[in-house]
Design a protein that fits this description.
The complex is a heterodimer of chains A (about 170) and B (about 550). Chain A contains five helices and five strands. Chain A is an alpha/beta fold. In chain A, α1 packs across α5. Chain A is globular and about 40 Å long. Chain B has one domain: Cytochrome-c3 Hydrogenase, chain B. In chain B, the strands form six sheets. Chain B has a four-stranded mixed β-sheet. In chain B, strands 10-9-6-15 form a four-stranded mixed β-sheet. Helices cover about 40% and strands about 20% of the residues of chain B. In chain B, α4 runs antiparallel to α7 and α8 runs antiparallel to α17. The chains are: A alpha/beta (about 170), B alpha+beta (about 550). Chains A and B meet through β2, α2, β4, α4 and β5 of A and β1, α1 and α4 of B.
Chain lengths: ~170, ~550
């Protein structure tokens, strides 16, 4: 999904399974951004559950923004933003499974795969889900938060400095 | 902007988000596997999701079943709808579908070999083998020279897929009546360049040590043995080494299975399938369909497919054709009391005059059928694997070799199809959306035969059944208590070290099932647990 002819420098990747309730949020946000239209140099990609291929798509990008659902125990709809040190604490490559690839596995794998071409900046947005049941739609809390997440991403790609506490772990 | 307020705990629970888990229980007596049970641990209700939906919902939903073979799901889903709606599909669209399907399989071949299969070749149990150090040098995860090159270049074929499909995985660019993309000359030129690069850099230089033409000259096992010693490049290629090492550590001695095979075939001769029908499918195939049982070949007919639920967590002990198939789950606790033990159904094939048989599917099955005499001029005839099975029998090594052999076969086909596109002609013909109908679409995913059956009524999906290659291979016993193919393949496997039964990993991985697979080994006499082994991890 190339937004223009300008060489892309920023890639937004939405991960997750469209068929599993709130896990769909990553691909849904990508579709939403695509419909809004992206600024020059910004690409978006539906990573789905491809896992390893998310890492291949990062090649040559200066900045990568990953969007995924999560299940941490926080109230559903909570949006996490993380960058910098937190994103560098990657899981070991051992134990990665091609059939259960998570966003942090994708980053660990990309680090190995891309070496000096690994993106300079990684930002991860995670949206706390309520239900991940096969065949469910997105829960109301996540549907509401999805709009906010799109807004946050829109500001992020336009280089607006995040205000408030958004960057506290960066 | 005050919404993102929390520090992240990276230890979020893993989301088992794709296909679920497979537990394999194996009973070992006197160092040999005597029985096996494969238990798919997750209910997959795609059929229930699709019921009552728009006819085209299968094109969106089924490619999301799997993050690894989404293009194969799309391929069979679109052909199912093409047959139900009796569409016309222009030759260009058939070529593009062929190219996309083959490219997905081509990316899977090295990725599966290095990232999933070969890592067991450096298990410490083989430390005493003479070439162990060389195996580590090549196949160690992330560090081996073969691993690094094979995995790093494995995305090249799906770059071609993305040129035609917009993205990979999870594209929905194939639609009834054709494909959404109209290729340009630039697309074709780029695709040829990518294919050339991958063929040269990985397939010929690293894997084969020779040209694909030279490799494909091999027609018998003795040809392969002669090829191994023909020159240093071939002897020392990753394939040359794999064959020599496999014979040294005994991978040619177990993992046999029933020796009965099913291919539903894939790739369609453009001029022969512009008006797709269920009946006309076999004759239009390039990689043929067929069944092999007890030395005999049979034509494949989808009407002979059944799903047995005697040992599956579904209502009753039904034995139905997929058009009549039901997906009515039961509580596993209740099901276990009735002897049920898996969420997978047991697909069976009714061979006329023989009866219901469990059939292995996958590259070994495809290549057995490729050796069937009587191919039409547009169809692949390749006797190599059939000869090898007749000479030395099926095994883990032969199952792997069959898969890797396809890299050469399919690369050649993709190049041919790219050259046959007529860019000024149509890629899509708008179909009439019929409210009623039945469709069947099948293809060969990297890991085997994959098919959809769709029944339309009043413009909606009345019934939708998917049978995956994994179900064919890992399905449980049927009502006659006959094992599923993978269960059978475990039996007879010798286990050298019961605390680390790597041999079970070889067998399980050789099927490339799309489930996260854990093998539990039990002592047959005492019932004591011996070892647990996760066989789907990358390390």
């Amino acid at each position: 999904m190339l937004s223009d002819n300008c060489a892309p420098h920023t890639l937004i990747i939405g991960c997750g399974n469209l068929l599993r309730g709130d896990d769909a949020v990553g691909p849904l946000v990508i579709r939403h951004l695509w419909e809004l239209g992206l600024p020059p140099g910004v690409r978006c990609a539906d990573g789905g559950t491809g896992g390893m291929d998310v890492a291949f798509q990062m090649r040559g990008m200066q900045r990568v923004i990953l969007v995924d659902a999560c299940r941490s125990g926080a109230p559903p709809g909570t949006i996490f933003r993380t960058t910098g040190r937190k994103v560098e604490q990657l899981p070991p490559l051992t134990g990665i499974n091609l059939h259960a690839f998570r966003w942090d596995h994708a980053l660990a794998f990309a680090h190995w795969l891309l070496k000096e071409e690994y993106p300079q900046q990684i930002v991860v947005y995670l949206l706390e889900g309520a239900s991940f049941e096969l065949g469910d739609g997105v829960s109301p809390a996540v549907a509401a938060a999805q709009q906010r997440l799109v807004q946050l991403l829109w500001e992020e790609i336009q280089g607006v400095e995040s205000r408030g506490d958004a960057n506290l772990d960066g | 902007m005050s919404t993102a307020t929390k520090t992240l705990d990276l230890r979020v629970s893993p989301l088992g988000r794709v296909e679920g888990d497979l537990d394999v229980n194996v009973r070992i007596e006197d160092g040999v596997v005597v029985d096996a049970w494969t238990e798919a641990a997750m209910f997959r209700g795609f059929e229930i999701i699709l019921r009552g939906k728009d006819p085209q919902a299968g094109l969106i939903v089924t490619p999301r079943i799997c993050g690894i073979c989404g293009g194969s799901h799309l391929t069979k889903a679109v052909w199912a709808l093409d047959t139900a709606w009796r569409t016309e599909v222009p030759p260009n669209a058939i070529l593009v579908r062929n190219i996309a399907q083959a490219c997905e399989t081509l990316q899977s071949i090295p990725r599966w070999f290095y990232a999933l299969f070969a890592i067991d070749l450096i298990n410490k149990n083989y430390a005493k083998a003479p070439e162990y150090a060389e195996a580590v040098r090549r196949f160690a995860p992330f560090a081996g020279v073969g691993y690094e090159k094979g995995v790093t270049l494995s995305n090249k074929p799906v770059e071609i897929y993305a040129i035609f499909g917009g993205q990979w995985p999870h594209s929905s660019f194939m639609i009834p009546g054709g494909v959404m993309s109209a290729a340009t000359l630039g697309d074709v030129t780029r695709s040829v360049a990518i294919l050339d690069f991958w063929q040269r850099e990985w397939l010929e230089t690293s894997w084969l040590g020779c040209s694909i033409d030279r490799w494909l000259e091999n027609q018998t096992w003795s040809d392969v043995l002669a090829w191994l010693d023909e020159n240093a490049e071939q002897h020392n290629s990753d394939l040359g080494f794999f064959l020599r090492y496999s014979m040294a550590i005994g991978l040619d001695k177990f993992g046999r299975g029933f020796g009965s095979y099913l291919a539903m075939g894939t790739y369609w001769e453009p001029e022969l399938y512009t008006h797709p029908t269920i009946e006309g499918r076999n004759a239009a195939l390039i990689a043929r369909s067929g069944v092999y049982q007890d030395g005999q070949f049979y034509d494949f007919d989808q009407a002979n497919v059944r799903e047995d639920t005697a040992h599956s967590f579904f209502e009753g002990a039904s034995y139905l054709h997929p058009f009549d198939g039901r997906t009515e789950p039961v509580d596993p606790a209740l099901g276990r009391k009735q002897g049920k033990y898996s969420w997978a159904k047991s697909p069976r094939y009714e061979i006329p005059g023989v009866g219901a048989k469990p059939l292995e599917t996958g590259p070994l099955a495809r290549q057995m059928i490729a050796g069937r005499p009587g191919a039409a001029s547009h169809q692949t005839y390749d006797p190599l694997i059939l000869n090898i099975v007749k000479e030395i029998g099926p095994s883990v090594m032969v199952r792997v070799l069959a898969r890797m052999h396809e890299a050469a076969q399919y690369t050649r086909l993709v190049r041919k199809w790219l050259s046959e596109l007529k860019l000024h002609e149509k890629f899509y013909i708008k179909p009439q959306e019929l409210p009623e109908g039945r469709g069947f679409g099948a293809t060969e995913a990297a890991r085997g035969a994959l098919a959809d059956w769709i029944v339309l009524k009043d413009g909606k999906i009345e019934n939708y059944q998917v049978i995956t290659p994994t179900a064919w291979n890992i399905g449980p016993r049927d009502r006659n208590n006959v094992h599923g193919p993978m269960e059978e393949a475990f039996i007879g496997t010798p286990i050298a070290d019961q605390s680390d039964p790597v041999e079970l990993g070889h067998v399980a991985r050789s099927f490339d099932s799309c489930l996260v697979c854990t093998v539990h080994a039990y002592d047959g006499k005492t019932g004591k647990a011996l070892a647990d082994l996760n066989v789907s991890g990358m390390c």
